Amino acid sequence: MTRDISDSEAERHRAKMVNRKAVQDAEVSEKTIEKGLLMVHTGPGKGKSTAAFGLALRMLGTGRRVGVVQFIKGAWSTGEQQALALFGDRVAWRTMGEGFTWDTQDLKRDVAAASKAWEEAKLFMADETIGLVVLDELNIALRYDYLSLEEVVETLQARRPGLHVVVTGRNAKQPLLDAADMVTEMTLVKHHFRAGVKAQSGIEF
After folding, report:
1. Rounded CA separation 20/7 (Å)
2. Which of 25, 32, 161, 205 falls 20 to 30 Å from 94 in CA-CA distance?
3. Which stretches of 98-201 are assigned E, i.e. beta strand?
4. Edge-to-edge order in the sheet of strand 130-136
5. Cβ-contact 95, 120 below 8 angstroms
6. What long-range pairs does 80-86 form, CB within 8 A, spacing at least 24?
């Protein structure tokens, strides 16, 4: 169903969009810096890792490689891992966590796993064939002090110039937010889990 649009309304719209395009083009032309970005996806809402894997797909579409390190999530199979595996060696994936801390209930194991994951992350960041590194749930490891926040932030800031890094997880700490080029906070408005809907394949994993 379409509504009738008068010639005068169409002309007003055209003139408005001409002005809008001029403003937009001028703003875009002012942006001249090209650099690797440090991006943080945080907040209580769903979609932080999902958005990061969307970036991974976009990077792959440009022909560049992607490295993924999962800090907390255990070694269960996920849809995103299976999908990205179809890209072969263009995706380097390391699931280093042993599950959430309430599952392991072992601080020493959690700290050891996070330390190993961070070492893998540094290897990926040093690999010049990789254009994007996804540090999935790193914020959780930092929240529980499994890793040195100061060391992590310093290493991320000192990464090679063209490397993009995206960090996910709730409760991102302020020094990381301050160091980031972009911070997105996912806001929880409504979640089906609270209505009794369990985690489902293809949606949560």
Report:
1. 20
2. 161
3. 130-136, 164-168, 182-185
4. 91-95, 65-70, 130-136, 164-168, 38-42, 182-185
5. no
6. 80/49, 80/50, 80/53, 84/53, 84/56, 84/57, 84/60
Residue type present at position 174: Q
Please give the structure tokens belonging to residue 193. 């889990």
Q: Which residues contact 37 (CB under 8 A, 6 or more apart)?
A: 164, 165, 181, 182
3-state secondary structure of 102: helix
Give the whole-angstrom CA distance, residue 35 versus residue 53. Answer: 20
What's the CA angle centered on 130, arms 28 and 181, to 5 degrees? 40
> By CB neighbour count within 10 A (0-12 exposed, 13-18 middle, 19+ buried), where does 77 fall?
exposed
CA–CA–CA angle 68, 72, 73 (5° rounding): 75
pTM strictly above 0.70: yes
Closest C-alpha among 40, 70, 72, 77 to residue 55: 40
The Cα-based distances of 55 to 16, 156, 205 in angstroms read: 33, 18, 17
Q: pLDDT tens for residues 97-118?
A: 665 555 556 788 889 989 999 9
Query: How far, in Å, CA of 137 to CA of 69, rounded?
Result: 9
Return the H-helix or E-strand segment holding 12.
Answer: helix 7-29
Per-residue pLDDT band for 202 (boundaries 50, 70, 90) equals: confident
Per-residue DSSP letters for 167-194? Answer: EE-SS--HHHHHH-SEEEE---S--GGG
Which helix (H) or strand (E) segment holds residue 65: the answer is strand 65-70
